[in-house]
Amino acid sequence: MKNLVIFLLLIGTSIKLNAQIKEGYFFGKEVDEWVYSENKKEHILLETIDLDTEIILGKNKIQFKKGRNADWLENKWVFDKTIESKEGSTYYRYFDEREQMILIDPEENLLLYYYNWDKTFENFRNLTVYKNLQERKSSDYGKNEENDQEVLAKFIITDATFNGEDVSENVIENKAYTVFYKFKGSDEIYMANYFSGVDSQSYGKLYDSDLEKFEETQTEYQYDVLTSSWRYINDYDDKKGTAKIELTRIFKPQGVTFELKIISENLDFMVYKGYMEGTLDFSVFN
Question: Which one of 37, 44, 244, 247 is most buried, counting C-beta atoms within 10 A?
Fold first, then answer.
């Protein structure tokens, strides 16, 4: 099957090159949906859909999803070979364990996903084309005009520990902070730990959140505690996972201080302390 000529104009010429896809995190705003026509013996365009897409290209894996709230498709893609179209475009071809196929065109910023193999047609029944892909840098987060994100609150880190070890010097040197944000038109809240000194971050959606509020007493300032689950992705190594967070905000006369505890799925334990910028109303978590 891997030797079949599948894409519309590909002639299947093998080029003796290694996969040279650009690594990084990419996003798009629309996809083309194609279906195989038995009469025409080729894929025909069904519709173009305005849809947020995300793609992670790494050394050892490729992940993509169609729709902001969709699950990541993270099959084990294996590089097959490089092929060339009649127009001279170069595509990097990958198959997974189910012999689905993707083609990546790094020059035109396209990812073509072929699926639902049909033995009768000897071709893939469906094709989704992820179009006009743009690379998203970590520093893009919070720039409304570029990616429709709205920053809700920013937590400047002044003290940090990792598994009990003081890592404050490294955190401060890299101007680290935690940011809460959402996408315009959506009520879902996201969190990112951003290290601006090295332009890298871990980011993802918060879910299963719970908020407790505590009034000021004679011995304690007013404070609240947010507990939540966090589905995160590291943009520096493509690792993704889940973590539990506990964020305590303390409302002092001079400002709002915080303590953020993060326990990852492998039980790494991080504690960030500092002060808050912004006016995030945590009632959104109720």
Answer: 247
